């Protein structure tokens, strides 16, 4: 497949980031029923940037809508918005954001953006007519004229004497799309100047990027505007590094020929250059955008390096030689590789805030449609997770939140009758616990109807047990089965029997688990436990017969030789052991996987105490071998295709001698 134009990729990426920021800013303002000056300026900058970028890329529909919203916020900045208009403004701009996002998505798929933006642009123009008593320009054509030439802005000529200015800007290193950002400056200044010219002249060619990156961008203008105001307009540009504005005498040789009223001999421009420029050095951007596919490849290479290092340093033939120098160098190499691994992992880690904040819009829109009052509280948004795992979280969270708003949280009338606050509360929380991340989605709604779930499960033939024999945990687990739904009516958001099974599949796909707790009229809580990363973990090697297994170090509490006087059987016939006054079940790994062990007597082997999500138990194995940095790899397809009993196996890893070891999934090892 042919790669996209690099400038197009940057345009798509930057526009998506800006639109996410726009939506977050609008939702924050909507809670306060107005926008403050900082938020208004932020939205104006976003629209200005998208307008300029879209014009540069010739997406006139996107540019036109962005320009209309920019006009709207230009008026709002001048305090011409009326206090009672904020609800309408939020609706209009959120609708605009949706259309812009849809347009960018189509561009990403190689399609042309829709042309159906005119109704919204007309709505914005109508509002502007009401507040300003003037009809704004219906499109962005006025701003786009004269991008590379000397055309005059006829509607600007007020008859006042106009001064000449030289404006020079530089952009932050690695900001990319420099010519597009320069184009944005030109379009912003055009309404404020009579004449203009810029270097480079043609901003539509690729070479302009290199020239601006190397020498900066220079634009000459003739304007009656206050230079401070001109500088403010320039500083609206994103990724700006430095900017300066210099007043040029009318007879300066620095003024381009195309802007001079009469060709005549000019004095040396050195006098003009003696004017001290006003420079505003913005904070340099110490980051670059990296294609995630390159990070995936880098992570794979680090994984291979870890495996190869283990194969070299732990080669049995080398280990028998006991070469002191080799062992010292091996330890140093191991340290360096570990540092490399941590750096690569940190590069891939991104906060969950991006995914979490998307849910604000979902809750807001659903609340309005189902006429409920729901407040979303976000906790721990700074928690970081691997990029690939973040991508897999969006759909599960969306399904859980839809369920909570649609039929978890009651209507305001129902809540008042129960003595609750008419507004329901939905909490989205993330926190780190060692090598895992816990994500909690909880509401204070009506809770799950245990009896209705069991009745539906019985009718569907999912269980033959009586209601009294089914525990709450078992009853609630039915909701994760495909096609299971207790909703009698199909709504826009639920009742089709899809959703919760998708949640579980997506979470399990990234090596995670999901648990559910619910209490009548108190609410429902979903607890998602997911790994920080899918790539590498610290593990302990265990042997059972001829096989070697790896368990996560974070799951191991202790290991010990059992004292047989502490071993007993409970009334249900389960093997248990008493340790420091607490009873724990004993799980014989060889029985779970039908293996031939080296030891079957507890006194001959070793017990490893493990902590899962819901249970602490003791795993009986032949022996502990030692620690292993495990590069997690999925099970080969030929194993999965044979439908072997791989329940409780989370993947595999390559050991130092080149053999394959299975990684035990502690949380699913004992699941029925």
Could you walk me through the main structural features you see in this protein, from its secondary elements to its overall organization?
It contains 21 helices and 22 strands. The longest helix is centred in the first third of the chain and has 27 residues, at 6-32. The two termini are 44 Å apart. 32% of the residues are buried. A hairpin with a 3-residue loop joins strand 10 and strand 11. Strands 14-18-19-17-16-15 form a six-stranded mixed sheet. Mean pLDDT is 80; it is low at 134-156 and 263-285. It has 672 residues and is α+β, with helices and mostly antiparallel strands. Helix 11 (292-313) packs antiparallel against helix 13 (324-348).
Walk me through the topology.
Layout: H1 6-32, H2 37-56, H3 60-77, H4 86-108, H5 118-132, H6 141-144, E1 163-171, H7 178-189, E2 195-199, H8 207-215, E3 217-223, H9 227-234, E4 240-248, H10 270-273, H11 292-313, H12 316-319, H13 324-348, E5 349-351, H14 353-369, E6 374-379, E7 384-386, H15 387-408, H16 412-417, E8 424-433, E9 436-443, H17 450-459, H18 472-477, H19 500-509, E10 513-519, E11 523-531, E12 536-544, E13 547-552, E14 556-560, E15 567-569, E16 575-579, E17 582-588, H20 589-592, E18 606-611, E19 616-621, E20 623-631, H21 637-640, E21 649-654, E22 660-664
Parallel strand pairs: 6-8, 13-22, 17-19
Antiparallel strand pairs: 1-3, 1-4, 2-3, 5-7, 8-9, 9-11, 10-11, 12-13, 12-20, 14-18, 15-16, 16-17, 18-19, 21-22
Helix pairs in contact: 1-2, 1-4, 1-14, 2-3, 2-7, 3-4, 3-5, 7-8, 11-13, 14-15, 15-19
